[in-house]
Specification:
Pfam families: OTCace, OTCace_N
Largest sheet: 5 strands, parallel
Distance between the termini: 11 Å
Number of helices: 12
Enzyme class: transferase
Strand content: 5-15%
Number of strands: 9
Radius of gyration: 19 Å
EC number: 2.1.3.2
Pathway: Pyrimidine metabolism; UMP biosynthesis via de novo pathway; (S)-dihydroorotate from bicarbonate: step 2/3
Strand order of the largest sheet: 7-6-5-8-9
Helix content: 25-40%
Keywords: Pyrimidine biosynthesis, Transferase
Amino acid sequence: MKHLISISDLSVDDAIRILDVAEAMAATQSRAIKKLPTLRGKTVINLFFEDSTRTRLSFEAAAKRLSADVISFSAKGSSVSKGESLKDTALTLQAMGADAVVVRHRSSGAAHRLAHAGWIDLPVLNAGDGTHQHPTQALLDAMTLRRHFTNEGRPAEPGTTLAGAHVAIVGDILHSRVARSNVGLMSMLGARVTLVAPPTLLPVGVENWPCEVTYDFDEALAAHLDAVIMLRIQHERMSAAGGGFFPSPEEYHHSYGLDSERFERLGKHTAIMHPGPLNRGLEICAQAADSAQSVIVEQVSNGVSVRMAALYLLLAAKENFNV
């Protein structure tokens, strides 16, 4: 496997292999010297056509901790703002000697196009494309859940799956590449996944996804949940689509927010997750976000390990994922 574009590109063995390597990478980050020589001499391009903080910095940290050189590209202030195409930008970066491209783009399918159009001959890692996929976010979520579901927050044993876990993903499913990737990966690893959202924030065809769907957050909370993943309300995509997805922020929070009352009803071992950035007071209250059950900061830490694993397996391991 040459690229990491979509969760659907992975087999169960591929996914577990990435998670196991991520655990090995995480173990190295407790050392005084965190850098590994694995990708010395390699150059990784971060090609970001869409705003990002956590994902961009996480990929940059991952590459640097593997001793790769990193070139970070932002569409703002670049030739893209003058009309340069994705193809010409990619060709320019390959000519500069890149060994891999991490791409984030507002258009669904952009990462696949970059990887398979024949423009460049480089591994491509999808850091989020439109409302389509965000595979490394799903992998870091799975790493976090795997630890808390099977080993009380400690590193998971090699080969561990999510069989028996029950996860609720709540909020703006319609615009969420995180939800799409998580449903695919977590169900692949054996978890039961329940989507919770108003009808206006569910995509057409969701009944064909490998998950359950409910409009009632309180009904979902009545089941035993091992984790609840609260999704950000994506105001920017809603505004572009004309808005009108729910009556008001107050109404949304009342029906679908993890407020103080719902937080009190969560099981004491239910992990609270969020891909960030948080809209505090809308999808999640401060009490829940800052509680001992919140693993949101741990997700960020695990993101660096997962991205180290992905870069290692694509650029350094023999036969890529099949080492």
